[in-house]
Structures are given as C-alpha cells and as structure tokens.
Design brief:
299 residues; 5-stranded mixed β-sheet; two-stranded antiparallel ribbon; 7 strands; globular; disordered N terminus
C-alpha cells in the first residue's frame, strides 16, 4: 500500500507449464495474469521456476486485489478453474467493513490483518470524512498527502514495519499453514493485491524455494496493473510543482516500490539471518512444513 517506486517491471508474465492440474506432462506457454472482470491485479503463481528446477503448479495459488468487486464470471473462474477452497484477506477491519469480500459458496474466507497498527491509524485518521478507508481510492487526499514529509517517510517505512510487526508475523505464519492445509485452490489478497499480498506471495515463494530474483520480479509485476493510474496522478503532482518525493509517494501508494522491497529483504538478511530463517523462526513455519509445501505445489 505504501513505499517509493521506481519503474514499471519488464518481467515477463509468460511461463512454460502445464494447463491442467491433473496432467502436468505437457509443457506449453501460460499467461500468469488472470483476466478477471472485477478483481484487480490477479495472477496465477503457477509456472515460476524454483532454484531446484521445479515449477509451481498452475491453477492452485492465486494473488489478487479485494474480492468485493468480483463478478459472476470471476467467481466461475475461481470455482471451476481453481476449485477454490480458501481465501486469505490481509486487510484490517475498517477495510473489510467498507468493502466486504463477495461470499463464495463452499469457500472459507479468513481475515488476517497484517498492517501494523500505527499505519492503520495514520491512514484512517484522514479518511473518515470521505467514508473511504483505501487511500488509493481517494485522489484529492492522496495529492494532499503526497506533499506531507511525514507521510512520505511513512511510505518509505511501510515494508520494514510490516516484517518487524509481531502480529503481522503471526498472521503470515498462520497464512502459510493455511496454504499448506488447503484442500483446494488458495487465493490471498489485500486491498489492491500488491503490498501486503505481495509480502504474502514473497513468503510463499521463499518457502517453495524461489530465488531472490524470482521473488522480486513477482512483487514488481503489480506495477504493470496500476501503471496508467500511477502516471495520471503523478502528472497532477508535477502540475502542482511537486518534487521527486511527492511523485514517489503517489507511485508508492498506487504501485509498489521495488527499491524499498529489496532494501527490506536486505534488512531481513541483516536482522534475522536470511529470508528462510525469518520464515522458520519469526513466522513459525518449519523447514519440515516448507518441504511439505514444496511436495504439494511443485512439479
């Protein structure tokens, strides 16, 4: 939801993998981006290649934006193609109350807020008058906040705050255990499916054995989904004679910050030893559980 962003990723959204859960012997191109009608920033985690040469199976793991705008066609994709059984919602209470996920028959929806309390308070403090809790939907408020040094600093500090927050750690650990236990397809999301969902994806990928490059490129792909909106609001900031920090704030709120994401991965290495150690010790997802996750989702 926050942090400074640099460029739109050029990473390919195409991979080679099977198109069917039950027959993984045929290799063919697959597009990871899912063409939902009402759900933003949806993509299949399938086809990504792990360090041991195995790939994630398609049609099992999905990341996206909130499901409140899901259409009947979107639900049909999730229930037929993905045989969805579990949804994990990383939004906080006010976000969920304002835009509750669409109920999907037979699907368990678990809310696991991973936003640090201090960030929640900062965002909701300026949102009550508009009746909105998602700052990405508040154009005028965004432009105002873009010039606020305190908000700019908070944007830069969001990712370190998430990974250091004990409650967020516990909930991401619960999420990983839920992914392992799921009986069908799994979808996780936050509001826009980029920051909190992006960290959830990073933890899944790391537990599956992905390289840092694969993790970073998947995180950065969210910028492609929001490129037009980023540029439109950035142009308004420039029209108001905003500097680089103001433009970076807009880009961070609407897109993601690859630079801040990589810096936070470095911070994890420095403070916790490695991302793998962080997942095992801070998130409580054991090496044995990680091996079980790989057996379930890799081919």
């Amino acid at each position: 939801m926050l942090a400074a962003i640099l460029v739109i990723s050029g990473a390919s959204v195409f991979t080679s993998c099977s198109s069917d859960n039950d027959d993984n012997s045929v290799s063919q191109p697959r597009e990871r981006v899912i063409a939902f009608e009402g759900i933003e920033n949806g993509r299949d985690m399938g086809g990504l290649v792990m360090q041991d040469g195995r790939t994630i199976r398609f049609d099992m793991l999905v990341r996206s934006g909130k499901l409140s705008t899901a259409t009947d066609a979107d639900v049909a994709i999730l229930t037929s193609r993905y045989r969805l059984s579990n949804v994990f919602d990383f939004r906080f209470d006010a976000e969920v109350a304002a835009s509750p996920d669409r109920v999907i028959d037979g699907v368990s929806n678990t809310q696991l807020s991973t936003m640090p309390r201090v960030i929640i308070e900062a965002y909701t403090s300026g949102s009550s008058s508009s009746g909105q809790t998602d700052p990405s939907d508040q154009g005028d408020l965004l432009l105002q906040r873009a010039f606020d040094p305190q908000m700019q600093a908070m944007a830069r500090g969001l990712y370190p705050a998430i990974v250091a927050d004990a409650d967020a750690q516990a909930r991401y650990g619960e999420f990983l255990r839920g992914v392992l236990a799921a009986k069908g397809g799994v979808l996780w999301h936050c509001s826009q499916g980029k920051d909190r969902a992006g960290w959830g994806s990073a933890f899944v990928l790391a537990a599956l054995g992905a390289s840092r490059q694969v993790i970073v490129e998947d995180f950065d792909l969210s910028n492609q989904s929001y490129a037009n909106k980023v540029e439109a609001l950035s142009a308004q900031v420039r029209d108001k004679e905003g500097g680089d920090e103001a433009v970076a704030f807009i880009r961070a709120i609407i897109g993601v910050s690859r630079e801040n994401f990589e810096a936070t991965l470095d911070l994890i290495d420095q403070q916790y030893g490695s991302l793998s150690a962080y997942i095992e010790n801070q998130l409580g997802f054991s090496l044995e559980a990680q091996q079980q996750l790989r057996a379930k989702y890799l081919q």
